[in-house]
Give the backbone structure.
Amino acid sequence: MKLTYLALLLGLFFISCSNEQTERPPNIIHIFADDLGYGDLSSFGATDISTPNIDRLANEGIKFTDFYSAAHVCSPSRAALMTGRLPQRMGIHGVFFPQSYTGMPEEEETIAEKLKEKNYATGIVGKWHLGHMRRFLPLQQGFDSYFGIPYSNDMESVVYLDDNDVVDFKVDQHYTTKTYTEKAVEFIDVHKDEPFFLYLPHNMPHVPLYVSPDFEGVSNRGLYGDVIQEIDWSVGQILEKLEQEGLLENTLVIFSSDNGPWLVMEDHGGSAGHLREGKQFTFDGGMRVPTLAMWKGKIEAGRVYEGLASQMDWFPTIMNLAGISLDPEKVIDGKDLTEVLLNDGQRAGDEYLFFDGGRVEAFRKGDWKIKMPYKGFAGAIYKSGVAAHDTLLVNIKNNPEEDVNLFNSNREKGLELITQMKTAYEGLGELPAAQVLRSSADNSHYEHVQELLKNKVQKK
């Protein structure tokens, strides 16, 4: 009788331990490329760049075809990802610079801060770009550890930070992707026995481009393609580490880009594929980004989701998966994608506002997109030239190139969308003024562009 009772107690103990293991919230890894275009991965149609490891996320997980960044440039899109909120709610209309004394407001709650409610280990390896003053850095925004370059790799005084401190003033960017990968794998190793959130925002393929010797000449698209293939290798290292540690079945791995390709960089910039324009524009080439997610055994392999989704959606999705309630007093613009990921469901809502700084420039509702009149841009060393256009109405599913204007032939639909756009914008309520980003004295962001163009002219 005593033996039977003891066996029963042991059985209950092991069941309890098993349930505890099963109920452990999932690890989250978000890998973020910089200026990667919609046409730069083989899973999204690239034929001159090989990305088998990133493609594995598509083959064994889900591919999003209509996934949008919250902005067509860097800092606003990253603020939106971290908070689930439109960057306009934070006054972040453009890119922070080394001369910026501003950053993402301290009162904003990041994914990392919220995950602390479930005792997640939180780490970032890579580019932050939400303010480099101490009070704006990752450790003050919920992360336990940080290693990386705090802004774009073409800005003056590129340094490595380790937590809050500069540890290297002479960064050899040929090895940045490899260094980030080693640090990321090390983070997984240290925290493999607890739930963790790893944010891995690469500095590449933002210009200036650098690649380690092992990846020189490996692609069919020159240096840019080599850079992407090294990032693909990095993704492979992450997946291999997860497999080695038996963590693949309890880890959601996300891969995406902050905005579209910087087309003015020509062969040093990426490709938007069949989409129109790129970075710095609210055409789809500037804001629709290649996005993939894999969670072995949870997300059905080979899924393709063609509905609209956004970078802001990851915040409420991750909170739901981790079992964390959202603050009802805090406006979250993202929508929970849990049903999309796990149950072949649909995202709530099919509307999207496209901002150029603080101005609403376009609006999508279902398959339709309206874009307000644009005076055109002649072109500059930092931005591609674009012709002027009148009010532009396109069916984005039938015409992702956005080159067939249906406004005159379907004026009723166009006016309907304009009204809906106005209603959606007014529904945001009062928004703060734009933050001051830098003084006019800092031209470091464009020095590489000038040098690149100078070299091209000399070669001609």
Observations:
- The CA atoms of residues 12 and 18 lie 10 Å apart.
- The radius of gyration is 22 Å.
- Confidence is low (pLDDT under 50) at residues 15-22.
